[in-house]
Amino acid sequence: MFQADILEKCKANDRSAQLKLYRQYCDGMYCVAMRFLKNADDAEDVLQEAFIKAFQKMHQYKGEVTFGAWLKRIVVNKCIDFLKSKKEHTISLDETYMKPVDEDDDWKVDGHIDLDEVKEAIGQLPNKYKYVVMMYLIEGFDHQEISEVLQISETACRTRLLRGKGQLKEFLKIKGYGTGS
Predict the structure, then answer these.
(1) How far apart are CA 127 and CA 140, in angstroms?
(2) How far is CA 181 from CA 106, 108, 152, 161, 169, in A?
(3) Tens digits of per-residue pLDDT, 106-123?
(4) 143-150 and 154-174 helices, crossing angle to 10°
(5) Given phi > 0 = left and psi -120 to 50 = alpha, else beta, which region is 152?
(6) pLDDT digits (tens, 9 = 90+) for 47-63
(7) Which run of H or E residues covers position 20?
(8) How far is CA 106 from the centre of its chain?
């Protein structure tokens, strides 16, 4: 069965086609949810909600992007909504102490640091930076897509990415990994 055929059957509410589509994408989307939520039970719950929403909104999928990219956006949005709902208090961050980070600020992490350590450092970022950094560096979203998902301007997206990368650099420096600068 071709992907387009499965999608058309899903739009017609064909349960067996929905199951095939679920099986095709569930593992990859679970990994996306885990990167945001860090909890298997929460990731499974959010994943189920994302698939339910995807099947309910299937008529809105127009094929402008791959189905996987469309579904990934739903999963990321559901993860962010879930994290926002768990957060009880918003703490404002005084950014006056932070120096601006240029986009061509060339920094490298020593080769002995592994991806898990970088992900751990990203997890320490304040949420407004963490989501942008994760979506850009790990999920591969561009500034326009991130700004749409998070409902912020592209300028704010770029600023948060640069500041998040700057804080990430500092976290890695503090851990003694060095940054090549």
Answers:
(1) 18
(2) 8, 8, 32, 19, 10
(3) 455 556 667 778 888 888
(4) 100
(5) beta
(6) 999 999 999 999 999 88
(7) helix 15-37
(8) 24
